[in-house]
Amino acid sequence: MAQDGAVPEPITPPPVEGVSGVWRFSREPGGYHRARSLPGHLLHLVLEGFYRLRTNGREYDIRPADVIYYHETEEVEWLGNAGRVSFYSVGFLAPGLPPLPPERRVFASDEAIRAAFEDLYAASLLPRDSRRALGIHAALLRIVAGIDWWRQPAPAAPAESAALWWRLERWLRERRRFRSTIDELAAEAGCSRATVVRACRAATGESPMRRLRGVRMAEARGLLGFSTLNVGQVAEYLGYGRIHEFSREYRKACGHPPSAARGRGGE
User: Fold this and answer.
1) Exposed, middle or buried, 250 (CB in 10 Å: 0-12/13-18/19+)?
2) Measured by CB atoms within 10 angstroms of the end CB, which terminus of the chain is less buried, N or C?
């Protein structure tokens, strides 16, 4: 209880609203591979191995103990690895957390972040009860706090404009409006078409229609790789009237038919 009649300051809610998954991946030596990151925020911690990565128009030589950060279904190009690579991965939803700037998307972890990733993965292996959920969220918040989001430089684009787009994108994901038009997005936001276009470019650097195609394909890869839905059900989930239309767009974006993505972890 507050003393002297003082009103206590409200506590800010934690930024993480949900965790989409915690994984440990391994890749044997190989060459080029292209994919898109998961919706929301995605963090990798490299445990072993070296590889070359291209994302956000930049190339990186990734090494053990590096953390790689992705935001909202970004295109990722794995340019090759001579030896085995293993890494932890965690996807989470935190709409109020701004994306890290491009120059901070790859950075060396410290001991505290590495320990938090170990605890995160260990918690993910517990039985599905409250101990598992609490362990995952507690470890993830330690990781998020250790990255020091609040110390990043202010983004070049107006924050309000970018935030408008992220609200719209969250709306279309929650309502499964993956084939929305610009007019529909403008109506939902209560603004003009031009405002929606500016907001999307401020947040992603892309036009709304290009961004929505990327979102649809990212959702498709996740559903085909990790769900029990068949190709027709995935097409329906994403709002396609005909399965052939979905298959054509998927093949163009991913280089193979959707049926080939079954069981490949969304590749």
Assistant:
1) buried
2) N
In angstroms, rounded to a whole number, what is the distance separating the alpha carbons of residues 137 and 241?
Answer: 39
Given a cut of 70, whether residue 182 has pLDDT beyond it is yes
CB under 8 Å to 155, separation ≥6 — which residues? Answer: 98, 101, 162
Domain 18-151 has CATH 3.40.50.410: no
Could you tell me which residues come within 8 angstroms of residue 180 by beta carbon, excluding any fewer than 6 positions away? 172, 188, 212
Cα–Cα distance measured from residue 122 to residue 134, given in angstroms and rounded to the nearest whole number: 12
- Of residues 5 and 52, more confidently modeled: 52
Integer Cα distance of 48 and 140 in angstroms: 21
Query: For residues 180 and 97, what is the distance between their CA atoms, to the nearest angstrom?
Result: 25
Instruction: Give me the CATH topology for the region 213-267.
Output: Arc Repressor Mutant, subunit A (1.10.10)
SS3 at position 133: helix
| In the chain, domain spans | 18-151, 156-205, 213-267
Q: Same CATH fold, 213-267 and 18-151?
A: no
The answer to whether 99 touches 71, Cβ cutoff 8 Å, is: yes
User: What is the token pair recorded at 68?
Assistant: 């790689």
* pLDDT single digits (tens) 24-46: 999 999 888 887 777 789 999 99
Calculate Rg over the CA atoms of the chain: 20
Select from 160, 130, 163, 170 the least CA-distant residue to 17. 170
pLDDT, tens digit, 9 for 90 and up, residues 134-146: 999 999 999 999 9
Residues 39, 218: contact at Cβ < 8 Å? yes
Q: Return the higher-pLDDT residue of 20 and 46.
A: 46
Nearest to 72 by CA among 10, 162, 12, 155: 162
Note whether 117 and 25 are within 8 A (CB). no
